[in-house]
Amino acid sequence: MLGIKVEKSKDNLMIKWQLSKTEIPLSDITEVKLDDTYGGNDKTAIRIGTPYATTDRIAIETVNGNYILFTTNVQSLLNKIRTYVNDVS
Predict the structure, then answer these.
(1) Topology (CATH) of 5-88
(2) Locate the Sublancin immunity protein SunI-like PH domain: which residues (predicted)?
(3) Could you tell me if residue 26 is left (phi over 0), alpha (psi between -120 and 50 degrees) or otherwise beta?
(4) Closest CA to 51 of 65, 40, 66, 43
(5) Predicted confidence band at 54 (pLDDT cuts at 50, 70, 90)?
(6) Taking a C-beta distance cutoff of 8 angstroms, is the pair 88, 19 a contact?
(7) What pTM does this model have?
(8) What is the phi/psi pair of residue 45, to 5°?
(9) Which own/partner pairs from 49-56 qualify as long-range (CB within 8 Å, at least 24 positions apart)?
(10) pLDDT of residue 52
């Protein structure tokens, strides 16, 4: 099984996992942080990744909704996402 990949595409954050691709406008992202809860506080958040056997989660809050990334590569993904968001600001 492949892990989550993130990259910048124009002014969007592109999140790829398995056969899915999610694009989030970087200007819509309000906060990126580690989530220390198992399933996240926001019950309506879009969940990407495998929630079991994974202890690390990244929460991405946007003006239109929230996302939770389940990953074992938390520090690398967190640094990339924060860099992309800061480049837009």
Answers:
(1) PH-domain like (2.30.29)
(2) 2-82
(3) alpha
(4) 40
(5) low
(6) no
(7) 0.90
(8) -65, 145
(9) 49/3, 49/4, 49/17, 50/1
(10) 74
Residue type, 8: K
Using CA atoms, how far apart are residues 27 and 22, in angstroms rounded to an integer?
A: 15
Residue 88 tokens, joined: 């837009």
Structure tokens at 22: 């999610």
What residues does each domain of the chain span?
5-88
**Length in residues, the chain:** 89
Return the amino acid letter for 39.
Answer: G
Q: Is 30 left (phi over 0), alpha (psi -120 to 50) or beta?
A: alpha
